[in-house]
Amino acid sequence: MLISGRDSEFERKSKKGDETMRKFSTAAIGFVALSMAAPAMAADMAVKAPPPAPVVAVYNWSGFYIGANGGWGQSHGCVDFVTPAGTVAGGCADRSGGLAGGQIGYRWQTNQFVLGLEAQGDWAEIKNTRVSLIDPLISTTGKTDAIGLFTAQLGWAWNASLFYVKGGAAVTRNRFDIFNNVTGVGLASAGHTRWGGALGVGWEYGFAPNWSAGIEYDHLWMGRDNFGFAGVVTPGGLTLTGSGISQDVDMVTLRLNYRFGGFGAPVAARY
């Protein structure tokens, strides 16, 4: 009976151990199955769409604009004096000075090309005084006090950057004076307005939706202008009946423009 009891207790412990092993095996198998299924479940999950590419802002140069400019100008002029004996060369001289003014215009943009019309007016202080070659006792003063440009433009735009060439008509207002070097008394004076041609090149950058700044160079061919005197006699005894002046002008200006129109700010990227 004692042996039988011990056997029964041994059998109960063996059964309990077998049951524990079965539970452990079942848990292990479930863990392995869950691990194998996880990648498949992850593959079936929805992936968040990538953010859209940002929209590139395109600057538009079309529209009316108005602006201001300022800079430097140089005039090269040659003077010939007319005497009863004929024309006498008076010499050539350069004069330079400041410029300040404004411009107004309109531009059309088609793809990368920009066409425009512009009117520009500048106050000028371009003057020079020199001793005359025909009579050292007199001096001449040449002055340009106003410049106007009426031009057409052809440009190439790269977003907010614009390179352009321009050409058209130019007008200058000039004054020419002759005075006695000894006494300082004026001997003759003439004011004249002359027309010529202009050719220029410039670059402009749009730093805000309606604002742009740039730099421009222009060359003006003003030709020759003639005017007469009422028989001026110089201190050296030379009689002057008239004069002829040829003129070219170079201009370099900085420009600031405001463009009117319903052009909003550049499109911002959205995610």
Automatic annotation (TrEMBL):
Residues annotated as domain Outer membrane protein beta-barrel: 34-260
Superkingdom assignment: Bacteria
Compartments reported by the entry: Cell outer membrane
InterPro entries listed in its UniProt record: Beta-barrel_OMP, OMP-like, OMP/PagP_B-barrel
Chief location bin: membrane
Pfam families, A to Z: OMP_b-brl
Residues making up the signal peptide according to the UniProt record: 1-42
The keyword Membrane is annotated on this UniProt entry: yes
GO cellular component: cell outer membrane
UniProt keyword annotations, A-Z: Cell outer membrane, Membrane, Signal
Family: Belongs to the Omp25/RopB family.
Protein name stated in the entry: Bll6524 protein
Native source organism of the sequence: Bradyrhizobium diazoefficiens (strain JCM 10833 / BCRC 13528 / IAM 13628 / NBRC 14792 / USDA 110)
